Predict the 3D structure of the following.
Amino acid sequence: MNLPSILSPERILEHCRPAAQAVTVKVVDETGSTNADLLASLPELTTPMLLVARQQTAGRGRAGRSWLSEAGKSLTFSLAWRFNLPVQSLVGLPLAVGVAIAEALAMFQVSVRLKWPNDVLYQGRKLAGVLIESASAGHVPHEASWAVIGIGINMAVNEQMAAQIGRPVASISWLADLDQDMLMATLLNALSDALVQFEHEGMDAFTQRWNTLHAYTGQPVVILDHGQALHEGMAVGVDRIGRFLLDTAYGRVAVMAGDVSLRAKEN
Ligand code: ATP
């Protein structure tokens, strides 16, 4: 068996289409958090930047949660992207990113589903997580913004890590046998195309695509706020601004992303 390549900026860019060619690509052996590194470099960035870490030791999730990964067994990277949009226009961005990841994985015949707001599920379990952190940019803070889009994809999860996560986890081990530069470039191409489209068309370009990929359409779900059930109902999908819709006993409710979590309801 050929050993998979171990990620190089030149080889990643060789596989990239025009929208992604403008991205500066950097690969490091190890870092704490690719999101933290890119957020710290934002003041110096003049082009979009992809930072790939062969190993990430302090990966972050939403609200201070952590994302676990292991060298050679996960793909961990962040993409810093500048939008000519104010920060508040980026609320639907995690959904557009989920669509891009799903469409990239579909090129490898991997069929995933999306869990609102920011998870990618494979066979009902979490395969990938997305964390987006954003900042205003430019002299006029309202006209432009940077988003740092962190993504972790499981290729293998050992027992110890699964126990530490304590929730159902998915992995696809043969992804680690693919040419990693080509896999990374496929993701970067899909993301770059999606981000350009998001800037021009906003959520309009993604609502229907997201709903087609939705994991829980028509299923009972619970929205949790700090562990407390906020709403229970039948999952509908997302609306044109990226809010999650569910039909409850008191009518249709639209939920904004904040720090709420969605769970399939156990019967
Ligand atoms: P929720 O499901 O409550 O909405 P979340 O999915 O938004 O939470 P994130 O902040 O996106 O959570 O991701 C962090 C969470 O993901 C951790 O708290 C842990 O439960 C889980 N997790 C951490 N590492 C992994 C991993 N490698 N694979 C799958 N899940 C993981």
About this structure: The chain has two domains: 9-212, 216-264. Residues 180-201 form the longest helix (22 residues).
